[in-house]
Specification:
398 residues; alpha+beta; Spore Coat Polysaccharide Biosynthesis Protein SpsA, Chain A; 2 domains; six-stranded antiparallel β-sheet; four-stranded mixed β-sheet; 11 helices; 20 strands; 20% strand
Length: 398
């Protein structure tokens, strides 16, 4: 890989190159997100952008300060120019190192340049089912995925190639939101919703705070068996407690909203692929989500905006509500659940307003003629959009 960097640099004749991006040939990139990430940095400076492994043993064998080549990394033009001038001596110095990405990291360390970590680069030094990791993706653009041949297919009932092609349907709709976690609550039911946009949606039959939901469920296994501690992230164990394990819905389709009143919205459906095989949560006041089979989620067509001058990114732009088909059928949408929300590190008990994460705001449309008319429209639209067996709907009412 070191010589590839050199050869690519020497082949460049037209000028205008800002970044050199290196990766393995089985790495999946989301190019729009890659561009957005690199735009944050001055390409005239010396930058080495990437991420280390999810596996502690992998980082121990190579370097915790290394951008893993499977996940991919980016080098700014001035850094490559300086690297090429010193490459022969550096390769001779580190000829005993295993792994070209480790050699390059060592060369750049000698030049005084350390890794700038971006959490959207993923080496995936894991085995098994990585759905728990992807359902709690950090608030950073998803840039790359590696080792997809070493893990189970991303979607149940599909093989690896089908799963990747299916994921790309969501990515083509909006790369900026892919895998971004958002959280909302339905307090009357004591339900917690955790959405990984374009991938999965979890319903917990219990109110859980963001501090818990941001920790991945350990559905995956270690890269090398017996390595303890195994992971660079904290994990939640797979409990048999029905209050701690979610109902899981996977991305099913992108619904074209054109002609349905607002071409500025993207509607996605998430469906239950596998039964949870656990009894309902028995906590006081909880309701079972067992009968929910499909959920619709609406987001704007514009790219996701992030606020970077805070301790963590705050995600804006997705509107989410929930209403069961039983309510629609029995009461003609008597209740409309309306919530504009975004993910913010506050407690689930905060009240609605001022950008707070809150429960659903239930509006009694029997007392409001305009909302009642909207309810009838929603009823007719829902009957067209959902299969008869579907019992769930996520919808924002303006």
């Amino acid at each position: 890989m070191a010589r590839v960097v050199e050869e690519t640099f020497k082949e460049e004749k037209g000028g205008g190159v800002r970044w050199y991006v290196m990766a393995d040939d089985d790495t999946v990139f989301l190019p729009e997100n890659l561009v957005e990430v690199l735009k944050k940095y001055d390409h005239n400076g010396y930058y080495y952008v990437g991420m280390n492994s999810e596996s502690i043993i992998s980082n121990s064998l190579f370097s915790f300060g290394m951008g893993f080549g499977g996940a991919g990394f980016a080098l700014s033009y001035p850094l490559v120019e300086l690297l090429v001038k010193n490459l022969d001596g550096c390769l001779k110095k580190y000829h005993g190192y295993h792994g070209s990405d480790h050699i390059l990291q060592s060369c750049m360390a000698d030049l005084g340049v350390s890794l700038t970590q971006e959490r959207g680069f993923h080496q995936i030094d894991l085995h098994g089912d990585i759905s728990g990791l992807l359902a709690a993706h950090p608030q950073a653009p998803m840039v790359s995925l590696h080792h997809l041949d070493a893990v189970e297919p991303l979607f149940p009932t599909m093989d690896r190639l089908q799963s990747l092609n299916h994921l790309m349907k969501a990515a083509k709709t909006d790369q900026s939101r892919l895998f971004q976690q958002s959280i909302c609550y339905d307090h009357p039911k004591d339900w917690t919703f955790s959405l990984s946009w374009g991938y999965s949606l979890h319903i917990y039959e219990k109110i859980l705070p963001p501090s818990v939901l941001q920790v991945p469920l350990q559905t995956f296994g270690e890269w090398r068996k017996g390595a303890k501690p195994a992971f660079m992230v904290n994990t939640r164990g797979l409990s048999k407690d029905p209050c701690e394990i979610p109902h899981t819905f996977y991305f099913d389709s992108v619904v074209d909203s054109r002609g349905r009143g607002n071409p500025e919205e993207v509607i996605m459906s998430y469906v239950r692929k596998l039964p949870r095989r656990l009894p309902p949560c028995l906590a006081s006041g909880n309701q079972s989500a067992h009968d929910v089979e499909k959920i619709l989620v609406i987001s704007p067509v514009t790219r996701l905006e992030t606020v970077l001058n805070r301790s963590r990114s705050v995600i804006f732009g997705i509107q989410f509500g929930f209403i069961t088909m039983n309510q629609i059928e029995q009461m003609l949408s008597r209740f409309i659940l309306n919530q504009d929300w975004y993910h913010n590190p506050i407690t689930p008990n905060d009240s609605i307003g001022s950008g707070a994460v809150s429960g659903f705001d239930i509006l009694d449309v029997d007392t409001k003629r305009e909302e009642e008319e909207n309810a009838v429209k929603l009823y007719k639209w829902t009957k067209q959009m959902l299969e008869p067996s579907s019992l769930g709907l996520a919808r924002r009412m303006k």
